[in-house]
Structure formats: C-alpha cells, structure tokens
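ARCHIVE RECORD
Type: protein–small molecule complex
Small molecule: flavin-adenine dinucleotide
Source of inputs: curated submission
Record status: active
Notes field left blank by submitter.
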Amino acid sequence: MSAPSPIDGGKPVTIIGAGFSGLVTAFYLVRAGFRVQIHERAERAGGLIATKKESFGLVETAANGLLNSAYVEDLFSTIDLPLEPTLKEARRRYIFRDGEPRRWPLSFGGTVSVIWFVLRSIFFKALVRPRDGETVSTWADRVLGEEASRYLVSAALQGIYAGDPSRMSASLIFGRFFQPKKMASKPNVRGTVTAPEGMGQLIEKLKTYLEKTGVEFHLQSEIESVSEKPSHPLVIATSASQAAVLLKEFDPVRADACASVELLPIVAVTVSTARPPKTQGFGCLFPPVEKRRALGVLMNNFIFANRATRGFCENWIFGGALNQVPDLLKRSDQEIVKLVKEERDAAFATNSEILDASITRWPAALPHYTTELEKALPKIKGLRQNVLLIGNYVGTIGLAKILESAATVPDEISEKGEWS
Ligand SMILES: Cc1cc2nc3c(=O)[nH]c(=O)nc-3n(C[C@H](O)[C@H](O)[C@H](O)COP(=O)(O)OP(=O)(O)OC[C@H]3O[C@@H](n4cnc5c(N)ncnc54)[C@H](O)[C@@H]3O)c2cc1C
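STRUCTURE (tokenized, with ligand):
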C-alpha cells in the first residue's frame, strides 16, 4: 500500500507506526484539534512495548517504566490511568566494581573529581560543556576524570543506551543539561513510574482513549513507501531503519541519514528465582571495564509493587554495542538461561536456581547515539516536504523525552504543514 488518503473533514494528519512515539503524537495532535489516522503494520499497538502476564509475574518486553514529569502525569490523568510509583527499596541502586555490587563505586579521589565537576558545572559551565563531535569517553575523562568516567558515566549509559562510550556523542547525551532550563512544572511524584499492570496497560489505555477521541486505527496496515509529497502532514513514527525504507524514493537524503543510524541488538531475560538477591534495590549495572557479560539487571520485586506472583523476578539485559556474548541472538533459550545463572552467581556470590524464564530477543532495538548520529540529526529533524519523523533516534531515547518531543508536534505542523 502507498501513502494513505485523508479521512473526511477537518485538518487530517496521518501517522505511520503505533508504538509509543506514534500513540503519544496522536494524543497531542487530537488535543490540538487535528483529525488523526494511524497505520500500524502489526496486529497490535505498542511496538517494542508489551507486558506479558506469565505464571510467575509480569514480563516487560522493553521499557519497564518511564521517568516521571508533568507531561507524564498529565498523560496518565487524561487517559484515567493511576500512576504506579517505585517502592522505597528502589532508591538503592548498585554499580558492580571489583567483584561486588556497590552503592557508590568511586574512591575518595574519584569522589573529589565528581564534586569538582559539579562546582564547575554551576560556576564555569563553558569549561565542562560537551564540545561538538566529542565522544562520551573523551568528555567524561576530560571533565570527571578516568575513574568516574569508567565507573559512573559508562555504567549509567550502558544501562540506558547500551552504547559504546568511545563512540557515543557527549553533546547528544549530556548537551541538554547545559542548555538554559525551560520552565517546566514539577511532577508530584519523583523518579520512574509505570501503570499498575505494567507498560502494556499504558498502551492499551492510551489506544482506547485515542479511539474514543476519534483517532482511526488501521492495524495490520503496512505502508511500503512514501512515493510523493503527501497531500497533508505525515508523521513517520517507526524505527530509523523503517523510516529509511519509507523515504528511499521520495527523500533520499533524509533516507540515507536514517539508514546511517546504527541499531543495537538487545536480549532481555526475565527470570524467576526462589532466593532473593543478596543486594536488593532497583538493580545493578555492570560497567564495560568490569568485562561482565550482562549490561545490567533490574530487580523487579523491589522496583514496583505486584511484579512477581511467586519467588523473585529479575530482568537481565545483554547485548548492546559492546556485546560480550558471542552469537547472542542465535543462542537457544536453554543457553541463555544458563548464561543468566552464571552471571547471577558470579555477581551476587550465590548459587541460583532459575525456576522460570521469559526471553525477548530484539535484533535491532535501540539506536546507537554515536557522533555519526549527531552529524546525521540535522538532516532528520523537523517537518520538511510535509513529513516529520519522531522516535527514539530523533535526539532522545527515553519515553519521557519522546513524550515531550511529541508535545511540540502540533505547533510544528500548524506552522509548517500544508494541506492540498
Ligand atoms: C529492552 C529494552 C528496555 C527499555 N527500557 C526502557 C525504559 O525502562 N524506559 C524508557 O524510557 N525506555 C526504555 N526503552 C526504550 C523504549 O522502549 C523505546 O525507545 C520505545 O518503546 C520506542 O518506541 P517507538 O514508538 O519510537 O518505536 P517502536 O516501538 O519500534 O514502534 C514503531 C512502530 O511502527 C510500526 N511500523 C514500522 N514500520 C511500519 C510501516 N512501514 N507501516 C506501518 N507501521 C510500521 C512497528 O510495527 C511499530 O509498532 C527500552 C527498550 C528496550 C529494547
């Protein structure tokens, strides 16, 4: 099928992709008075996000929560969904160093360099601001010192971006902390939040709300290409690789920029164990310098209430740019469960019995936030030739920031959109 025709009356906007990005873009467009239709190639909405109800508890296939903000609270209250905050135990977060999980992985010297960095960020911002084209490792070594770079920055980024700090762009990731602050109202609840029955419930409630407000959903409707300038604004809310395919003929420059976005493989394994981990909290990150095979583990029982129906559930993440597991995607379920057991036993000095497991394999899940993406982004961003791209590769990877970007779409479309 080629680009769809508008539905009757009003100012139509078409969205391709009903993942989180497409759904929240529809949410703001409808609120601004546009009439929206969404084409989704799968038989369900949600894209990467889904919650499976296994016999041992809830399994998230991608995001387990999103960082709360005034935008998130507004979204949840509008669609009439209670906000599930994290448990008290989730305040404890661990980073693995020298064979054990630690709450603070730095020595006295490393801590002093972090304090010195904070002071310079307040009083001499220009000295610590990332430079164009600077990688995360170069920037962090320069402003924080080698120890904090290896054990704080690289660990944290491994958990969020699964990227390689020696290739990731410092200005894409940290640049916004050095921009003048926008006046945003503070949320009532701080930290990560989810829906009571998991992220899949957020998707379902949002879809139901959008249907009630008149959004037309076309599921199992794959758009193959955008062959000419659309007669009304079109939002492409797919992965970067799919956007490249869609725009190949019509806008080869933008398509090439999208095709240049490297996508990283991820394997997420939710396991049920009889014994609790020795360290209990939000989770533990494994910095690349420690050469562990897992990127990190989320301790589901201690993050949100009612995640496990029996025993203890953990979500182990493997893969990313510095993947330490050969043939990760080809490994059988049995081999992957064995891998989790070995990593868990080594990290927490225990002898685990894995009772059950649910494995999600994503061959190309997350965009790699490299300095090449930094160069490609100006060609990707903005409404041009009536087409706008939104998604986790257009400057912000987390759901909370995608939501903020989606909130700006109606203004962009009102100013620059064309209807013929
Ligand atoms: C393991 C993992 C854990 C994560 N954890 C977190 C977390 O805790 N917090 C957080 O904020 N983020 C997290 N993320 C990131 C977050 O989940 C994703 O960035 C986000 O879900 C991406 O949503 P999207 O809508 O941009 O893309 P997608 O979910 O990929 O949706 C794109 C949609 O477009 C559809 N589509 C594609 N091509 C076409 C076509 N030609 N025609 C019609 N439809 C098409 C697809 O079928 C899909 O439904 C995680 C990601 C992973 C993989």
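CURATOR ANNOTATION: The longest strand covers residues 354-367.
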